[in-house]
Amino acid sequence: MAPPQWNETGKSDSNESLSNRNRPFGGISRRSLLAGLGALGAAGAMGAAAGCSRVPAVGAGHESLLERLRGQGTARVGIAGEVPYGYINKQGELTGEAPEIAKVIFKRLGVENVVPVPTEFGSLIPGLRSQQFDVVSAGMYITPERCEQVIFSDPEYIMLDAFIVRKGNPKGLYNYRDIVEKGARMASGTAYAEIDYAVANGVPRDDILVLPDQVAGLAAVEQGRVDVFAGTSLTVRQVVRGSNRAEATEPFQPVVDGEPAIGAGGFAFRPTSTDLRDAFNRELRELKKSGELLEIVKPFGFTEDEMTDLTAKELCS
């Protein structure tokens, strides 16, 4: 997550379409992506709570969650109130790219209703494991560490990072190394992967202000409490709309130990819920194949550039 050399600003050309899934992402080939993933997995560079394919399958003594959900007619999904990934809109309705995908897939699996269970991002995996909900539907990044605690669907998207900075970007912050070199004050969200990216690039963990979400991050930048808030490019781009004191930087590919750190989000399930995960995956692959997945997520700012054919197994390894 050895790739091509990155330029001094860490910027990459993210405008190239990914309709051919073997084309580069941000200038990196699929082979380089997977090489980077392997390196990061070995180094354990991603911190935060974690899912993988090394989990027990449903068998004797395990109730089929899929059958139970079909009988109930309802699936509970954990969300973290993050636009555009999973949130409650002004009309009090569950929406976001992940919940809208979940609604389509669960209906095809014979589960008519999807009910939100809001929580903080850092509580999603603990809440899933303690059965507060049946699946995490929050666009959660798939990392080797998370893969030790939950199992993931294949990712529905792949994403670059971006910063919230003051208007005009007075300190010239374009990547994590810039934060170190310019002594900038940084913030990010609770359990965000961006914290680990920054630490791996030399930002002291204790110096990072951890905030509940991107809205709090925008306020911190606008008020001058920090110089930069790090998040996914979509999150950052959407939250700064309408702000006259802050702006989003251009998306960039985070690099850890010289390798691209791959940000790809998926749905998380309890390790015993392999039947549900596998059935969910089959429907997700059909949505990708037909092009329906892109149509579902387009209203939330996703483009073909964010589509991917990477698998959870590759990301967990």
Based on the model shown, name its key terms.
317 residues, alpha/beta, six-stranded mixed beta sheet, single chain, disordered N terminus, 11 helices, five-stranded mixed beta sheet, 19% strand, 15 strands
Description:
Residues 74-304 form the Solute-binding protein family 3/N-terminal domain. Residues 1-24 are annotated as: Disordered. Keywords: Signal. This is Ectoine/hydroxyectoine ABC transporter substrate-binding protein EhuB. It holds the Pfam family SBP_bac_3. The protein is of the alpha/beta class and 317 residues long. Helices cover 31% and strands 19% of the residues. The protein is built from 11 helices and 15 strands. Strands 1, 4, 5, 6, 7 and 15 form a 6-stranded mixed sheet that branches. Strand 13 (255-256) and strand 14 (259-260) form a beta hairpin. The protein is globular, with a radius of gyration of 19 Å. The N and C termini lie close together (11 Å). Mean pLDDT is 85; it is low at 1-32 and 38-61.
Summarize the structure.
This is Ectoine/hydroxyectoine ABC transporter substrate-binding protein EhuB. It contains eleven helices and 15 strands.
How do the helices and strands follow one another from N- to C-terminus?
HHEEEHEHEEEEHEHEHEHEEEEHHH
Mean pLDDT: 85
- Counting DSSP H or I runs of 4 or more residues, the number of helices is 11
Query: Structural class of the helices, strands and pairings?
Result: alpha/beta
N-to-C terminal Cα separation, in Å? 11 Å
Helix content: 25-40%
Strand residue percentage: 15-25%
**Shape category:** globular
Keywords: Signal
Protein name: Ectoine/hydroxyectoine ABC transporter substrate-binding protein EhuB
Organism: Streptomyces desertarenae
InterPro entries: Ectoine_EhuB, Solute-binding_3/MltF_N, TAT_signal
